[in-house]
Amino acid sequence: MIGTNVSDTILERLAGELSELTPEARKAATYVLENPRDVGVSTVREIAEAANVKPNTIVRMARQVGFEGYEDFRVPFREAIRRGQADFPDRARWLQDIRKSGNMGGLYADMVQDALRNVEETFANISSGQLKAAAEDIWNSRNVFVLGVGVNNSNARNFVYLASTGMVQFHAIPRSGSNPIDDLAWADKRDVLIAMTCKPYRNEVVEAVHVAREQGLKIVGLSDSPASPVLRNADHSFVISADTPQFFPSSVSTIALLETLLSFVIAVASNEIVNRVETFHKRRHQLGLYHSEDT
Questions:
Q1: How many CA atoms lie within 13 A of 206 on its CB side?
Q2: Cα angle vertex 131, ends 130, 134, to 5°?
Q3: Which tens digits make up the pLDDT trace of 219-272?
Q4: Contact assessment for residue 212 and residue 187, using Cβ atoms and an 8 Å cutoff
Q5: Using an 8 Å Cβ cutoff, are 176 and 225 in contact?
Q6: DSSP-derived secondary structure for 236-282
Q7: Does DNA-binding count among this protein's keywords (predicted)?
Q8: Given this structure, which CATH class describes domain 6-84?
Q9: For the whole model, what pTM was predicted?
Q10: Cβ neighbours of residue 25 closer than 8 Å, sequence gap 6 or more
């Protein structure tokens, strides 16, 4: 994503109108949503080829969101790149040094570079207002169900573990021996579902979000594309970057976003949360759970 108010206008409108577009126009819009930087540097034919559609489809998509044509459509994206693309010479030199350090230097540099870029791109497109709104719904809820499967199951459980130091209404799902839909059986409009999945999207997560929507839950979605079925049905949508040169998606930005979201929950919480956290850790010290050199 390009990290300017373009994502608050053009990209949000594209995401909101996906279901109304023809299949070909939806392909074009999805490509733009997932590769907005390309728009600023590519011709209509290049974008059409990359999206595997005809150039006329790109033009129609641009008109769908209020522009006269593709050239008019791409101007805000070009401006965003011109104003918002930061240079990090010190980091670049550091990464180059890593690449030269040995046989594994290239891999090391690629992993580090992707981790840093993932965090930057994720937070470049998230405002404090978005986080505050989600945090308020979480704090004011009866129960918070945090859903992740595969690697995201660990991310969900880590989030719930951290929250448990001051709050008791957080639950990581699916529970052992259960499934997400059963875990949401008695949830309703008083509850919140935090759901996360990246490509290829897991059916159980997508289906659980649909069920949660029908039952009236507030939904906080984390996924790697504005076109994700999880985000299209969410009250609070957060696009995370999960690129990596390896076979697995990166969890770095997911964890960073969840930790930041939790910090906002604590910030909007009532004063009792501070006492709860202090009591929790005081109890741990009293029970000898923390190592001390004095013992």
A1: 10
A2: 90
A3: 999 999 999 999 998 999 999 998 877 767 889 999 999 999 999 998 888 777
A4: yes
A5: no
A6: EEEE-----SSSS---HHHHHHHHHHHHHHHHHS-THHHHHHHHHHH
A7: yes
A8: mainly alpha
A9: 0.70
A10: 53, 57, 60, 61, 64
Q: Give residue-wise pLDDT tens across range 77-119.
A: 876 655 544 334 444 555 555 556 665 666 677 788 888 889 9
CA triplet 49, 55, 58: central angle to 5 degrees?
100
Residue with tokens 């004095």: 294
> 192 - beta bridge partners?
144, 218
Contacts of 215 by beta carbon, 8 Å cutoff, 6+ apart: 184, 187, 188, 189
CATH topology of domain 128-285: Rossmann fold (3.40.50)
Q: Do 95 and 17 contact (CB within 8 A), yes or no? A: no
Classify the C-alpha dihedral 222-226-227-233 as positive or negative: positive
Distance CA 248, CA 241 (A): 13
Contact 285, 154 (CB under 8 A): no
* Residue 222 phi, psi dihedral angles, 5° rounding: -125, 125
Distances from the Cα of 30 to the Cα of 7, 16, 69, 95, angstroms: 13, 11, 18, 32
